[in-house]
Design goal:
Blueprint: E1 2-3, E2 10-16, E3 19-25, H1 27-31, H2 40-46, E4 51-54, H3 57-70, E5 77-81, E6 85-89, H4 100-113, E7 116-117, H5 126-135, H6 148-152, H7 164-172, H8 178-182, H9 186-191, H10 196-210, E8 226-236, H11 239-259, E9 262-273, E10 278-289, H12 292-299, E11 312-324, H13 341-352, E12 358-362, E13 372-376, E14 399-406, E15 408-410, E16 420-423, E17 426-439, H14 443-446, H15 457-466, E18 468-475, E19 480-486, E20 499-506
Helix pairs in contact: 11-12
Length: about 500
């Protein structure tokens, strides 16, 4: 495809080690004699008034990619083909446009309306469609189903997407059409080539053209299994029209998901504009849902970011991720969040980003600093880990320090917490306390490989010296602290006295 600029001959060129060659032309330049691949000096000799612009491959690819997204109005399976083409798999989509011929006509009219000259070919295989689009003649650009070979038999060998050196050898052999190649036995064709690789490339392209070997199509965007399309009789330019279109699509999508017992976890609304542009907004949900009103509220402010330009003539709503919706009563399910919290989390995720909204989930460890980890707010429990049963039976501070902070104790009591302690240069007097709660270390982490087992004497001593006695204490001002003593009196390492730490605050 090529962009028509003005009513003057224009060519795009690329400068290489062998000189400057033409990479693209408009129709006026073609009429003046300019040909793609021609040296620029030769073209200027035939047409001195030709206008030259340097090609920009990166910008061309960006525009082609945007055009590919615009082409998703016809099918979700759209792939980039080289530097100037699109491959669109319209299987199961043509009836939405009144048939194959109507679909191609609609595409050509829209391409012309946005300033593009294009050629289109339709066939059972990507290779045949590519050949018809570039080398088909007249109106014979659609190969009837099952008639791919008949539709391409008269096309030149250039339509096989072969390298120039292979094409040159085929021409020297007098083979100029695809039909001539197909009549030659494979063994005989291979003997005509000096290189087995060259012969294999010809056979591969012939098999791809006929459909004997499938060509993978890598779409620009992962194809959503659940997709609803709404075309507009008149381009929509107002926000109210966009919201109405979304409501209509959500109702249709809900019916499909409900029939299969599914709910959406991620959705995208794509708008195709009459000027060739496109736009899209996406949302994510913490739990599978399909209620139109609820999902429409999540789209909410994001719809304001859609710029309709000269008008939107097609809306596409896709459920990018779906899950089975459980009929279980969520409020009684293990690890479930309160029902009224889920909408808040959904709004925060779509406003701030799902990766920024997390919560603490329990982990199977009795050591406080290892007993929780940060997980996505609606991501659920870590697979393979069981929530400790004691987690709901013991109190834990609202604020747990990442690392326990040492404190100075005054008037220690061997079997209880200190009467006073100094933390961050301030002395606190304890008026009431509760405890102790003894937490032993995880021997499989703390013990090295030198022990003979969990019950040998050296390991038992290490467990006792590393044990922590936790106390919940309150000072005169009503502040509650979580303190612990590391080690036991008389059995600490090197005979040192146990050390005291503060590990958290209750409120």
């Amino acid at each position: 495809m090529e962009r028509q600029y003005n009513n003057e001959p224009i060519v795009l060129v690329h400068s290489g080690v062998k000189g400057t060659r033409i990479t693209a032309t408009n129709k006026m330049a073609e009429k003046a004699g300019a040909v793609i691949g021609q040296m620029l000096n030769d073209a200027r000799a035939a047409c001195p008034e030709i206008h030259v612009e340097q090609s920009n491959e990166e910008a061309d690819l960006d525009y082609l990619t945007r055009l590919g997204h615009w082409g998703m109005r016809y099918s979700p399976m759209v792939a980039i083909d080289g530097a100037d083409g699109l491959l669109i798999d319209i299987a199961g989509c043509d009836h939405l446009f009144g048939g194959e011929q109507a679909l191609i006509s609609d595409f050509m009219l829209r391409a012309e309306a946005i300033g593009l000259s294009a050629r289109a070919g339709l066939a059972d295989t990507p290779g045949a469609a590519w050949a018809l689009a570039r080398y088909g003649r007249g109106q014979d650009l659609i190969a009837p189903p099952g008639k791919t070979l008949e539709a391409t038999i008269d096309l030149p060998i250039e339509a096989l997407r072969l390298e120039e050196k292979v094409l040159l050898l085929l021409r020297r052999l007098g083979l100029k059409q695809i039909g001539q190649l197909r009549t030659i036995p494979r063994a005989a064709l291979e003997r005509r080539f000096r290189s087995r690789e060259a012969a294999s490339s010809v056979q591969l392209r012939l098999d791809q053209l006929a459909g004997f070997i499938r060509e993978p199509l890598v779409p620009l965007k992962e194809v959503a299994l659940y997709r609803e399309v709404l075309s507009c009789a008149e381009p929509a330019i107002e926000g109210a029209a966009i919201a109405m279109a979304l409501d209509h699509l959500l109702l249709r999508l809900e019916h499909r998901l409900e029939r299969e017992g599914l709910g959406a976890r991620a959705l995208t609304l794509t708008t195709c504009h009459s000027d060739g542009g496109y736009d899209g907004v996406s949302i994510v949900l913490g739990r599978a849902a399909r209620e139109p009103d609820y999902i429409a509220r999540l789209f909410g402010e994001r719809l304001e970011g859609i710029n309709p330009g000269f008008g939107i003539d097609l809306f596409i709503l896709s459920a990018d991720r779906v899950e089975k919706m459980s009929e279980a009563q969520q409020s009684l399910a293990a690890n479930s969040l309160p029902k009224d919290v889920i909408p808040l989390i959904d709004r925060l995720m779509n406003r701030l980003g799902a990766e920024h909204i997390t919560r603490l989930a329990p982990v199977a460890s009795h050591v406080p600093e290892r007993a929780q980890r940060s997980v996505p707010a609606m991501g659920g429990q870590v697979m393979g880990e069981q929530v400790p049963a004691w987690e709901i039976m013991v109190s834990r501070p609202f604020r747990l320090f990442e690392r326990p902070e040492p404190i100075e104790t005054i008037a220690e009591v061997p079997d209880g917490p200190p009467l006073r302690f100094v933390w961050r240069r301030l002395t606190r007097k304890i008026i009431r306390s509760r405890g102790p709660e003894r937490i032993a270390p995880e021997w499989w982490r703390e013990i090295g490989n030198g022990g003979q087992g969990p019950h040998d004497n050296r390991q038992s001593l290490l467990l006792r010296t590393n044990a922590r006695d936790y106390y919940e204490v309150e000072d005169e001002e009503g502040t509650r602290y979580w303190l612990f003593r590391a080690g036991l009196y008389g059995v600490t390492r090197n005979g040192d006295a146990p050390q005291w730490f503060i590990h958290g605050l209750f409120g």
